[in-house]
Design goal:
Two copies of one chain form a homodimer.
Chain A (H helix, E strand, L loop, with lengths): L5 H10 L6 H11 L8 H13 L3 E6 L7 E6 L1 H12 L10 H7 L6 H32 L6 H31 L5 H8 L5
Antiparallel strand pairs in A: 1-2
Helix pairs in contact in A: 2-3, 6-7
Chain A binds a DNA duplex (28 and 28 nucleotides) through helix 3.
DNA sequence: ATGAGCATGTAACTGGTTACATGATTTA
DNA sequence: TAAATCATGTAACCAGTTACATGCTCAT
């Protein structure tokens, strides 16, 4: 028990913004962190249950007519303490597994068109992310203009923006590299994987 | 069966560079992708076994005196086909979970010194990564100067460099934001988490 | 002698996603 | 009438890490 998983503490963190149901939390995560974090129900509901068992949150059931009951969770003083001591602990070093890089690394086996399409897709993805960051930023500045923590919240989208721009810059490099690549001898490549052992 | 996991295909990819044992693969991964990808034995050995069962690699045992046998794996034509069709499939959109951002997002609960230390640690981490990328790049240019795929391999480290620099830029922003943050009333904060309900 | 390197593998565990089951209410 | 939204939750699965077990050899 008392795992070190980030999810537990992320949930506690959201509950410092006010009491919420699991459903609420999911929506809030999607709106606030959405682009660089995610929590699924299969993760949220069980951990809320254990948090309750540990006395870090309380649960009060709001009966509603017609629709399912809302199980509203509120953080307890003990929960606040747990969150705070987690916040003081150093963060895990991040490890990014970038699949498209693996595809390029072995790109010698593929043709140039394929490589180009991978880069193109990746660029589109990053552009879409940047657009969504811009929307997040606008919404934050508008809806939370007076929140004292606004600068911190903006920091998270700004991180995404910085990284997204870096990926876009890399895409340009990648295009240049691929353009300069000699197309592998098609006969040879085909021979490797097909008719070889007829 | 025939899962879509990246690991399977990464292993196949490495085997296009030549026959290898699980042990070899691990070292190769650490040296080539090391900084942005990783495979553990607990992952490598079982997947090599299933790859063999599927006929995508062959295994030949090199008996050695004194030390354990080497199980050398070589990619088969079927393996090459599988790899190639994976390479043609689009990559999964990447999802980065940046724990330090979560810590900052709820930073309103922590004191400024803590936030600063998170950023400082993150900066150190990124600087170390950039240094290691630089070493990788140097080694690649030296040892594989004549490899036709060198530009593609360099692309992977360059991606890391681009992103690392972006994170560093963000660290500077973060420092500025934190410096401008009003220190939360300590009495109030302490009261929130401690004596509140005595 | 101590530890690093060689070399294989398994088992237990943590983390996370997806699909399923339920079912009323509102909106298109 | 189809769909999305509200709202809970479980079970099965996939991915990945860590720790363990084994045991010889070579360098310090």
């Amino acid at each position: 028990m008392a795992k070190d998983g980030t999810t537990r503490f992320a949930l506690l963190g959201f509950l410092t913004w006010g009491p919420m149901s699991g459903y609420d939390i999911r929506k809030t995560v999607a709106q606030s962190l959405g682009n660089f974090w995610n929590e699924s129900y299969g993760q949220i509901y069980p951990t809320l249950k254990t948090l309750e068992a540990e006395g870090l949150v309380t649960r009060t059931v709001q009966r509603a007519s017609g629709r399912p009951d809302r199980h509203v969770h509120a953080i307890t003083p003990a929960g606040r303490d747990a969150l705070q001591s987690w916040l003081r602990r150093p963060a895990e070093p991040l490890k990014h597994r970038v699949e498209v890089l693996v595809k390029l690394l072995f790109g010698g086996v593929a043709d140039r068109a394929t490589l180009r399409s991978h880069v193109a897709r990746f660029r589109d993805e990053q552009r879409a992310l940047l657009a969504s960051y811009a929307r997040s930023e606008a919404r934050l500045r508008e809806e939370s203009a007076d929140a004292p923590d606004l600068p911190l919240w903006l920091l998270t989208v700004q991180c995404g923006q910085e990284v997204g721009r870096a990926y876009l810059a890399w895409c340009d490099r990648a295009d240049a590299v691929i353009a300069a690549l000699p197309e592998p001898d098609p006969a040879l490549e085909a021979g490797e994987s097909r008719g070889r052992n007829s």
